[in-house]
């Protein structure tokens, strides 16, 4: 078949008879609704990290810095929700994004744009497609393997997000009328009842999506939509357990975090109490194990103590003294940027009690120091995070001493704080007056 004058010739490989504006719009609709949720929760997560403190996580983003607000410590599940939605929904939408890209593929392979308006539209498409693929790849890699990047994941994912958000906004504005028109061009109920034998191409369109020389159908539109929905459901099934836990946890195939019930050498650590040898109480995911942290076992042995500073003097508490202070118990989540979360029952000394002991009962912020060196060495907490009644320097989880992997002798646990800032193997807390 030869292309008539004025018609655009589809490259020989894009001849699916079901490709067309209606099917593209069917894939666009869940993205139009879902992506803004992914974007907003992602930006909220950024705020939760306390970017105002200029910490190593997240590192500075210069001009892209958002006007910040103090991330609250109440409700305790807030970060678990925003992070779970961001990652969960982001992963579930991947099959839809791929289907959407497939549906517009002829447009990605047309000749050079004619005129400045077309050129701008093309540029926005490059940023749109490049942006979302970059966000998907960096996000998925970060969930699967921690710290595989030669650059800061947070910075790259954040800058990539703004490129994508800009292009997405332009795209939605330009395409919204087409979306509405195309959705109205066929009935979904009818498509879902159409068998292969009656699957016909859409009428030729101005966008060049419909193949002028289509092949015979091998799949119905119902089949294509079902395949994408099934893909999204499958991703949901192997992801949800990361956050929901319980019987779903074993189905979380994308959860690479290990558990710690197996003997981890704790009993060979000098001074390590038998009560802290890992058992079922400490059997929940670990971000990075004690061995991986590179800490010398002696640093958490009998010589260990936590030092409180910021007031006039310095208060030093060893393990027994810490355990002898009034203990508070709270059920609190750890929610990690790598996509998993878990709720456990933590006990320890309230951070606000420690602030009082240090002589700074109303600190402006607090800097928590770990035995560990490197990016996890310190984390800064806001005033409301220190003062929240459930914020703890925890020494026990589920009624038993922390295992080495979960931060023995003591770790911070603060409601609604991103997992990464719940510092393990704490040696010092500086309560700041300004
Ligand atoms: N010192 C130190 N604290 C740390 C980490 C670490 O690697 N080193 N990992 C953080 C991250 S990313 C998370 S999600 C939580 C996980 O706590 P868990 O390993 O006890 O489950 O601890 C945080 N605290
Ligand atoms: Mo984490």
Write up this protein.
The protein is built from 13 helices and 10 strands. By secondary structure, the protein is α+β, with helices and mostly antiparallel strands. Residues 1-6 have low confidence and may be disordered. The longest helix is centred in the middle third of the chain and has 31 residues, at 153-183. The protein is elongated and about 80 Å long. A hairpin with a 7-residue loop joins strand 5 and strand 6. The N and C termini lie far apart (76 Å). Strands 2-1-10-5-6 form a 5-stranded mixed β-sheet. The protein has 2 domains: 12-251, no CATH class; 266-432, Alpha-Beta Complex (Sulfite Oxidase, Chain A, domain 2), CATH 3.90.420.10. It binds the ligand Nc1nc2c(c(=O)[nH]1)N[C@H]1C(S)=C(S)[C@@H](COP(=O)(O)O)O[C@H]1N2 and molybdenum atom (MO). The ligand Nc1nc2c(c(=O)[nH]1)N[C@H]1C(S)=C(S)[C@@H](COP(=O)(O)O)O[C@H]1N2 is lined by residues 285-288, 293, 334, 336, 370, 372, 376, 406-407, 419-420, 422-425.
Termini Cα gap? 76 Å
Question: Which overall shape is indicated by the principal axes computed on the Cα atoms?
Answer: elongated
* Count of discrete structural domains: 2
Strand neighbour order, sheet with most strands:
2-1-10-5-6
**What order do the SSEs take from the amino end to the carboxyl end, as H and E?**
HHHHHHHHHHEEHEEHEEHEEEE
Uncertain residue ranges? 1-6
Major sheet characteristics: 5 strands, mixed
Q: Calculate the mean pLDDT score and round it.
A: 90
What hetero molecules are in the model? ligand MTE, molybdenum atom
Our estimate of the beta-strand percent is: 5-15%
Tally of helical runs = 13
Class by SSE composition: alpha+beta
Number of strands: 10
- How much helicity do the residues have? 25-40%
Radius of gyration: 27 Å
């Amino acid at each position: 078949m030869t292309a008539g004058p004025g018609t655009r010739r589809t490259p020989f490989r894009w001849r699916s008879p079901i490709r067309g504006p209606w099917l593209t719009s069917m894939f666009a609709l869940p993205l139009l609704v879902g992506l803004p949720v992914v974007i907003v929760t992602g930006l909220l997560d950024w705020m939760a990290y306390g970017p105002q403190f200029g910490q190593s996580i997240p590192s500075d983003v210069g001009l892209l810095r958002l006007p910040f607000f103090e991330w609250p410590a109440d409700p305790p599940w807030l970060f678990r929700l925003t992070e779970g939605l961001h990652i969960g929904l982001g992963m579930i939408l991947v099959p839809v994004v791929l289907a959407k890209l497939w549906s517009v593929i002829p447009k990605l392979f047309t000749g050079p744009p004619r005129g400045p308006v077309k050129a701008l539209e093309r540029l926005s498409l490059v940023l749109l497609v490049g942006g979302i693929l970059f966000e998907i790849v960096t996000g998925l890699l970060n969930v699967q393997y921690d710290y595989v990047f030669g650059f800061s994941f947070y910075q790259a994912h954040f800058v990539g997000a703004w490129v994508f958000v800009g292009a997405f906004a332009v795209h939605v504005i330009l395409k919204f009328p087409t979306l509405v028109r195309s959705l109205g061009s066929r009935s979904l109920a009818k498509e879902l009842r159409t068998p292969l034998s009656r699957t016909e191409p859409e009428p030729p369109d101005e966008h060049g999506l419909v193949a002028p020389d289509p092949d015979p159908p091998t799949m119905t539109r119902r089949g294509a939509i079902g395949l994408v929905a099934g893909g999204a459901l499958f991703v949901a099934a192997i992801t949800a357990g990361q956050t929901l836990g319980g019987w779903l946890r074993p189905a979380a195939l994308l959860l690479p975090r290990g558990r710690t019930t197996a003997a981890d050498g704790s009993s060979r650590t000098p001074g390590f109490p038998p009560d802290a040898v890992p058992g079922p109480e400490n059997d929940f995911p670990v971000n990075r194990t004690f061995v991986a942290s590179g800490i010398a076992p002696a640093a958490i042995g009998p010589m260990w103590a936590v030092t409180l500073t910021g007031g006039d003097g310095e208060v030093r508490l060893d393990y027994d003294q810490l355990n002898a202070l009034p203990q508070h118990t709270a059920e609190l989540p750890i929610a990690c940027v790598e996509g998993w979360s878990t709720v456990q029952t933590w006990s320890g000394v309230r951070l606000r009690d420690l602030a009082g002991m240090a002589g700074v009962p109303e600190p402006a912020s607090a800097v928590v120091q770990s035995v560990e060196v490197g990016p996890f060495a310190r984390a800064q907490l806001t005033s409301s995070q220190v003062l929240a009644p459930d914020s703890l320097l925890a020494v026990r989880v589920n009624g038993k001493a922390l295992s080495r992997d979960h931060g023995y002798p003591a770790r911070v646990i603060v409601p609604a704080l991103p997992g990464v800032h719940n510092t393990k193997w704490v040696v010092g807390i500086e309560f700041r007056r300004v």
